[in-house]
Write a structure and sequence with these properties.
The complex is a heterodimer of chains A (192) and B (183). Chain A is mainly alpha-helical and 192 residues long. Chain A has two domains: 8-104, RNA polymerase sigma factor, region 2, helix turn helix motif (Rna Polymerase Sigma Factor, Chain: A), CATH 1.10.1740.10; 110-192, Winged helix-like DNA-binding domain superfamily/Winged helix DNA-binding domain (Arc Repressor Mutant, subunit A). Chain A has nine helices and no strands. The N and C termini of chain A lie far apart (57 Å). Chain B is mainly alpha-helical and 183 residues long. Helix content of chain B is 79%, strand content 0%. Chain B has helices at residues 3-14, 20-32, 34-51, 62-87, 89-112, 123-137, 144-149, 151-156, 159-182. In chain B, helix 1 runs parallel beside helix 3 and helix 6 runs antiparallel to helix 9 (159-182). The N and C termini of chain B lie far apart (112 Å). The chains are: A mainly alpha (192), B mainly alpha (183). The A-B interface holds A 26, 29-30, 33-35, 37-38, 41, 47, 50-51, 54-55, 58-59, 62-63, 111-114, 118-120, 122-123, 126-128, 130, 133-134, 148, 152-153, 155, 173, 176-177, 180-181, 183-184, 187-188 and B 7-8, 10-12, 17, 39, 42-43, 45-59, 62-63, 65-66, 69-70, 73. Bound molecules: zinc ion. The site of zinc ion has 6 residues of chain B, from helix 1 and helix 3.
Chain lengths: 192, 183
């Protein structure tokens, strides 16, 4: 039994699970479910689909935990599984042609923006409202958006982003730099 | 340093990913260019907002749903196994029946002819093995036992035949002696 979960690193938990400890598995689920949801939402733009994909990601973690090796950080591994499942889902949609161009747009009701009272004070004082920031992010082109979500929202390291998106660290850095500038431009135009 | 160059380096500047000399160059430009100053402040605000962005949360029953999925997956695996067993139950049971039958035949065979294989041949057994077939294949009166046990009956028979029987007997005895010598 794991009584004090905060003592354990992600990697220690996955090794515990590999030995059959299901409490370790649940702890990993609890640590990553919301982070993965926000990440996948960046791909599929619907909370329902995103949650389904996160479920499948954890199912895969359950059935393929043996595949994990110490060479990779657990976070990189699980984000990669989720990203691959999300891409598969997008390919399926393309084949079925369910997705029209307008569906790709950002929808307010998908994103549960907290009421003013729930927003931390320093962000209320911020120049940009959450709503505009979110809309601006989803107006970004795919490669910039993914890199930005992973780095600036999920707060992963450049190296982790590079592993997940499977591009060099140099490319990650330039994508993030350019993505931020693009975001700044979108926000500037919207606030005019 | 021009404004374009400054812009491309903003992220590195904020992330402290540039050399000291580059940093001082940028700060020099900042002192001269209000536009880039504003841009830098703006970017700081954006990044701060991104970090503080409200996050989506998974549904309250997320773990419950996940456990159901896992259970479903497990039962599906079991189902596949059951299907396999069902599909191949007939050939499997036939094969089992054949194996049991073969063992049965082997057991019965062994109980009828005990010690048939791996038998050590002793002199008396060679005698039996050599003599008994002649006993079986020849008329009862020609056998040695009959010659010894039933002399009257033999005497009643043709003398020539009894002589040949005696010759046969000597032959067998010689053979036995030879086998014994070989041993
Ligand atoms: Zn400037």
């Amino acid at each position: 039994m794991i009584n004090n979960n905060k003592k354990y690193s992600d990697e220690e938990l996955i090794f515990q699970f590999q030995k059959g400890n299901e409490h370790a598995y649940l702890e990993l689920v609890n640590r990553y479910k919301d982070r993965l949801l926000n990440f996948i939402f960046g791909y599929v733009h619907s909370k329902e689909s995103a949650e389904d994909i996160v479920q499948d990601t954890f199912l895969k973690l359950y059935t393929s935990a043996d595949m994990y090796r110490e060479i990779a950080k657990f976070s990189t591994w699980i984000f990669t599984i989720a990203a691959n499942l999300a891409k598969t889902e997008l390919r399926k949609r393309k084949r079925r042609k369910i997705f029209s161009i307008t569906d790709m747009g950002f929808d307010d009701k998908d994103y549960e923006i907290p009421s003013e009272s729930n927003v931390p004070e320093n962000s209320i004082n911020s120049k940009y409202q959450m709503k505009y920031i979110l809309k601006a992010i989803y107006k970004l082109d795919e490669p910039f958006k993914t890199a930005l979500i992973l780095r600036d929202i999920q707060e992963l390291s450049y190296e982790e982003v590079s592993n997940i998106v499977d591009i060099s660290i140099g490319t990650v850095k330039s994508r993030i730099n350019r993505g931020r500038l693009k975001l700044q431009k979108i926000l500037k135009n919207e606030n005019k | 340093m021009n404004c374009y160059r400054f812009e491309t380096l903003i992220s590195d500047y904020l992330g402290n990913n540039i050399s000291h000399s580059m940093k001082s160059e940028m700060e020099k430009h900042l002192g001269e260019c209000p536009n880039c100053r504003a841009k830098l402040e703006d970017m700081k605000q954006i990044l701060h907002s991104l970090h503080k962005l409200p996050k989506l949360q998974t549904s309250a029953n997320f773990n419950e749903k996940l456990m159901e999925k896992i259970e479903h997956h497990k039962s599906k695996k079991k189902f596949i196994f059951k299907q396999f067993v069902y599909k191949y139950s007939q050939p499997l049971s036939t094969a089992a029946a054949v194996i049991i039958l073969l063992f049965g035949v082997y057991y019965i065979y062994n109980s009828i002819f005990p010690n048939m294989p791996n038998q050590k041949i002793s002199t008396s057994e060679i005698q039996n093995n050599i003599l008994n077939p002649t006993q079986l294949s020849q008329p009862a009166n020609n056998s040695i036992n009959n010659l010894q046990k039933k002399p009257q009956y033999v005497k009643a028979e043709n003398d020539d035949s009894s002589e040949t029987n005696i010759d046969q007997r000597n032959n067998f005895e010689n053979k036995i002696k030879m086998v014994n010598k070989e041993k």
